[in-house]
Amino acid sequence: MGEKAFEELDHTADWALRVRGGSMTELLINAARGMLSLMGAEPAPGPGRMATLEANAEDPESLLVSWLEELLYLMESQSVTLGKMHLAEKGDLHIEAEVELLPLTKMDKEIKAVTYHGLQIQQTPDGLEAEIVFDV
């Protein structure tokens, strides 16, 4: 995959990312990494702990939103950021993830929610691509 995994896009009121991945699981991981980059989330030194997450949806776009919203909830409710992520597809539109939770030392910007505004996952010659808008 020759293009960047994610890039920030100009958006009038909110934040937006274009995210790419060779597979759905890669797209989800790159979306999470892009969201963390937008937020400027930095971990404190020291060990993290692992958590298991699951997400189900009726369509790929809902799976993407559900995944990112779950990560935002974890970050906010437990004052953590994310380290290593391993995702496995457990069937159509069902993922299971092992996520490293690291103590949060700093976050530059807060995201309120992941939106469906203009969200569409498209197949490209290099894999999948989506533009995600975040409510800030």
CATH superfamily: Archease domain
Q: In CATH, what is the class?
A: Alpha Beta
Q: What is the domain total for the residues?
A: 1
Order of helices and strands: EEHEEHEEEEE
Uncertain regions: pLDDT < 50 for 5+ in a row? none
Structure, explained:
It is a single chain. By secondary structure, this protein is of the alpha+beta class. It has one domain (6-135): Archease, Possible Chaperone, Chain: A, domain 1, CATH 3.55.10. It contains 2 helices and 9 strands; from the N terminus they run ββαββαβββββ. The chain has helices spanning 24-39, 60-78; strands spanning 6-9, 15-21, 42-43, 49-56, 80-89, 94-106, 113-114, 122-124, 127-135. Strands 1, 2, 7, 8 and 9 form a 5-stranded antiparallel sheet that branches. Strands 3, 4, 5 and 6 form a 4-stranded antiparallel sheet that branches. Helix 1 (24-39) runs parallel beside helix 2 (60-78). The longest helix is centred in the middle third of the chain and has 19 residues, at 60-78.
Characterize this entry briefly:
With 136 residues, the protein is an alpha+beta fold. It has helices at residues 24-39, 60-78, and strands at 6-9, 15-21, 42-43, 49-56, 80-89, 94-106, 113-114, 122-124, 127-135.
Task: Itemize the secondary structure elements and their pairings.
Blueprint: E1 6-9, E2 15-21, H1 24-39, E3 42-43, E4 49-56, H2 60-78, E5 80-89, E6 94-106, E7 113-114, E8 122-124, E9 127-135
Antiparallel strand pairs: 1-2, 2-9, 3-6, 4-6, 5-6, 7-9, 8-9
Helix pairs in contact: 1-2
